[in-house]
């Protein structure tokens, strides 16, 4: 089923959202053995032949994404200059990434990893990353060093009936190596009446997607991780630093932490602040002004927490008006 992600609410398909996106979790220990395991799978250096292969992989998966999501036009995906990361899903789909690196001599004030679609049935979390990438293509100033992963769970999104879990039926957001994962994650899962949507897997990092992401975090060393979900319509936060109070209409509401979640693994254990953006609907995009205000508040919070607030910086990374021409163009492309 092709789900149209529309800003026009009257035309949008409201999905029945029994979807619950649980994330973060509790205690932690250094997951050093898991980090080592992740590093072993480190991707190889890129050759000219590999670049062509990467482009073919990106184009192929872009066709599938555009076919699935009405709000992502094929050109929105193919023209972003994304690369195949070298990581793959269980089903062999590439995990595609886009980097917005340093500009000129300017040293970025923070490295930010932004992730969409770790749950495959949360369509809006994928579309939002594409919209923000399109905006950054125009406004990236080098204030931050971004790496963006629009579709963290390509099998979950792109199979005929999208699902939260990956192709092995594992909730990737319960598969990260939090301390006592073995003891806690399955106990927690049993408490959910063995809900298949919460299945944490047979072992921490048992899945290629979570293994790749853990490795990517070790290599990139982000200062902040932003993970996009739906449909709770709030902000959640794990880790050090001051939690943001709100991004646009989304208010801080700490939902708790869970064994094996990214917020628990990266935020609490590795002490990398993890902001979880929970969009209000999985199948309906936020309104244009909300997409802008969430972004601008994210940038403002990043600037505050990376210790650089200058007059110049205020102008960076954001459109000059809340409803930018870029976003309007993106919306018109649906
Ligand atoms: Zn989710």
Summed up:
The protein is of the alpha/beta class and about 325 residues long. It has helices spanning about 30-40, 50-70, 75-80, 125-140, 155-160, 180-190, 210-220, 260-270, 290-305, 310-315, 325-330; strands at about 85-90, 95-100, 110-115, 145-150, 225-230, 235-240, 245, 250, 275-280. A hairpin with a 5-residue loop joins strand 1 (about 85-90) and strand 2.
Give Rg in angstroms: 18 Å
Q: What percentage of amino acids are in beta strands?
A: 5-15%
In round numbers, the mean pLDDT is 83
Outline the biggest β-sheet.
9 strands, mixed
Q: What is the count of helical runs?
A: 11
Low-confidence stretches: 1-44, 308-315, 320-334
* Strand arrangement across the biggest beta sheet: 1-2-4-3-5-9-6-8-7
- Report how far apart the termini are: 17 Å
CATH topology: Aminopeptidase
Structural class by secondary-structure content? alpha/beta
Fraction of residues in helices? 25-40%
Small molecules held by this entry: zinc ion
**CATH class category label:** Alpha Beta
Specify the CATH architecture.
3-Layer(aba) Sandwich
| The CATH H-level homologous superfamily | Zn peptidases
């Amino acid at each position: 089923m092709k789900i149209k992600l529309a800003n026009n609410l009257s035309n949008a398909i409201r999905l029945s959202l029994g979807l619950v996106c649980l994330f973060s979790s509790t205690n932690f220990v250094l997951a050093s053995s898991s980090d080592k395991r992740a590093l072993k799978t480190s991707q190889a250096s890129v050759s000219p032949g590999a670049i062509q292969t990467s482009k073919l992989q990106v184009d192929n998966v872009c066709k599938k994404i555009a076919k699935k999501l009405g709000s992502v036009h094929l050109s929105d995906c193919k023209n972003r200059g994304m690369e195949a990361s070298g990581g793959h899903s269980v089903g062999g789909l590439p995990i595609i990434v886009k980097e917005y690196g340093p500009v000129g001599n300017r040293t970025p004030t923070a490295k930010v990893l932004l992730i969409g679609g770790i749950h495959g049935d949360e369509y809006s979390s994928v579309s939002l990353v594409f919209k923000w990438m399109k905006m950054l293509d125009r406004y990236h100033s080098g204030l931050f060093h971004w790496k963006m992963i629009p579709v963290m769970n390509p099998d979950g999104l792109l199979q005929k009936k999208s699902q939260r879990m990956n192709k092995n039926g594992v909730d990737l957001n319960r598969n990260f190596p939090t301390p006592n994962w073995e003891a806690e994650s399955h106990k927690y899962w049993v408490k959910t009446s063995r809900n298949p949507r919460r299945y944490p897997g047979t072992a921490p990092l048992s899945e290629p997607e979570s293994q790749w992401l853990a490795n990517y975090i070790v290599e990139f060393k982000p200062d902040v991780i932003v993970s996009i979900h739906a449909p709770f319509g709030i902000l959640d936060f794990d880790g050090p630093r001051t939690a943001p109070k709100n991004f646009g209409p989304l208010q801080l509401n700490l939902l708790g932490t869970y064994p094996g979640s990214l917020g628990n693994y990266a935020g609490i254990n590795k002490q990398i602040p993890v902001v979880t953006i929970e969009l209000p609907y999985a199948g309906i995009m936020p309104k244009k002004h909300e997409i802008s205000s969430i972004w601008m508040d994210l940038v403002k919070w990043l600037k505050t927490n990376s210790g650089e607030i200058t007059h110049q910086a205020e102008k960076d990374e954001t459109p000059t008006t809340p409803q930018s021409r870029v976003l309007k163009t993106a919306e018109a492309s649906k």
